[in-house]
Design a protein that fits this description.
CATH topology of the largest domain: Rossmann fold
Largest sheet: 7 strands, antiparallel
Number of helices: 12
Shape: globular
Strand order of the largest sheet: 2-1-6-7-8-9-10
CATH architecture of the largest domain: 3-Layer(aba) Sandwich
Helix content: 25-40%
Oligomer: single chain
Number of strands: 20
Structural class: alpha+beta
Length: about 450
């Protein structure tokens, strides 16, 4: 679970801004089942964060900042390729370093991971295990002016010999030490804590962009009957017109697969997959059609197609390819893995623009379903939205509602509804739309534009 995330000098964030999901003690009587305890602490963390703001206010930039940090943590970098940071560009601070600091829980332990980067290198990197008021530094990494990477890793002394040896080597100046560990060592050499941290970034933290499809949705539906039934039942209950889902999985030849991908594009991709022993890879052609490559003793290639079956009062059943369904149905289906996995595992889903193509009532029901079905365990969902119907204190706590707003200098700021003194019976939605809490578009006089058009 994410406890807090701090960012500075990234896209529209200039000065340091923090999204804190630590539950307010003042609201301890509100929706008690919306929180989990923070390990070795008297404080709690919220299961939900809902972020509002006008277009361009910075909501999606917070999403992109976390995505950038995940990439830094996991992905190797080519030498001399820089860090690909997107700095704030509207004042002189753009020449300063960008900082990302994440406090999170995994395997019932509290960690802080962060980096300080410029355009060319990771200046600093840190991984800390927090127990109560004490911080145990697992490692700190510094890149000197000469480009040399030095790592102090007193907290990893009990780790294996290969990891300790890698500490002395350091790694590329533009690549995180976490990424270096993953690219260089076998998982068995990581040690328990490094394994937990990398696994959390890789497997537990899922970021879903507005126009993204859930990776390997077809394979998931085909391999997990429980999810197939859940997804079909949810779509039916949501009045999408879909009665149930069908999956068609047909084995194809390597030549057929290469033709589907385009031979030039497929060649290197497939060669890399085939060389990777015991690998499984999913290639998405479009929503509802995937190509699956499995390798065990020999290579197998499959085409997976998702179909939605519609059942009518006449008894007729008509199956349509997913591409023939509405944008809203496809969007909802791509979000349903979040609900499924959040019920069964300690995962974190950050969904940018949850209301994209969804009816307002459906977005509300989506969050309510999560909150009711995930009352035990360390599950968390964070969303950005414009959907004002979610501003409902029957659904959310005040500290679960956040706002993003830009100042006149183009800098984004984050603040919580719990910062305001309001009555518990206040119509939050009405007052938000009236501008009481900010984070709405300031619309100048558009009548003049109409008059100009007429002229």
């Amino acid at each position: 679970m994410i406890v807090s995330f701090t960012v500075s000098n990234f896209r529209s964030f200039s000065s340091e801004e923090t999204l804190s999901l630590i539950a307010s003690n003042r609201l301890s009587d509100s929706h008690r089942d919306h929180t989990c305890s923070i390990p070795d602490s008297k404080e709690n963390v919220l299961k939900t964060g809902v972020i509002y703001g006008a277009n361009g206010a910075g909501k999606s930039n917070l999403f992109k900042a976390l995505k950038y940090l995940k990439t830094i943590a996991l992905k190797p970098k080519k030498k001399h390729s820089g860090t690909d940071r997107e700095k704030f560009k509207f004042d002189a601070t753009s020449n300063e370093a960008s900082v990302f600091d994440l406090l999170f829980i995994t395997n019932n332990k509290l960690y802080r991971y962060g980096v300080k980067v410029d355009d060319h290198k990771i200046i600093e990197e840190w991984l800390v295990h927090i127990v109560g008021s004490k911080e145990k530094v697992l490692y700190e990494r510094v890149t000197g002016e000469d480009g040399q990477v030095k790592i102090e890793a007193a907290g990893l002394k009990s780790s294996g010999e290969k990891l300790r040896a890698l500490v002395t080597v350091g790694g590329p100046q533009n690549q995180s030490f976490l990424a270096t560990i993953q690219a260089t060592l076998e998982v068995s050499d990581f040690g328990d804590q490094i394994t937990d941290v990398i696994s959390w970034f890789d497997d537990s933290l899922t970021l879903i962009a507005p126009d993204a499809s859930f990776a390997s949705l077809g394979q998931l539906l085909d391999s997990d009957p429980d999810f197939l039934n859940f997804a079909g039942s949810f779509l039916k209950s949501a009045s999408t017109g879909v009665d149930h889902l069908l999956i068609q999985k047909n084995e194809i030849s390597e030549e057929e697969l290469r033709n589907l991908l385009g031979k030039q594009h497929a060649s290197k991709l497939l060669d890399d997959i085939i060389e990777d022993k015991d690998s499984v890879a999913v290639i998405q052609l479009n929503q509802g059609i995937e190509l699956l490559v499995e390798r065990a003793d020999e290579n197998h290639f499959y085409r997976i197609t998702i179909q939605a079956s519609h059942k009518f009062q006449s008894g007729n059943v008509v199956s349509l390819d997913l591409t023939e369904e509405s944008d809203g149905t496809r969007r909802l289906l791509n979000l349903l893995p979040a609900l499924h996995f959040l019920r069964t595992s300690n995962a974190v889903f950050f969904i940018d623009e949850i209301d994209r193509s969804l009816h307002p009532k459906l977005a509300w029901e989506f969050l309510e379903f999560f909150l009711k079905s995930c009352q035990s365990g360390q599950h968390q969902i964070i969303v950005t939205t414009h959907e004002s119907n979610l501003l409902d204190l029957e659904l959310l706590r005040r500290d679960e509602i956040w706002f993003a707003e830009k100042d006149p200098l183009g800098t984004s700021h984050l603040y919580s509804l719990s910062d305001f003194k309001i009555r518990t019976d206040l119509d939050i939605r009405k007052h938000y739309l009236q501008g009481r809490f900010g984070a709405i578009p300031f619309l100048r006089n558009l009548t003049g534009l109409l008059e100009n058009e007429v002229l």
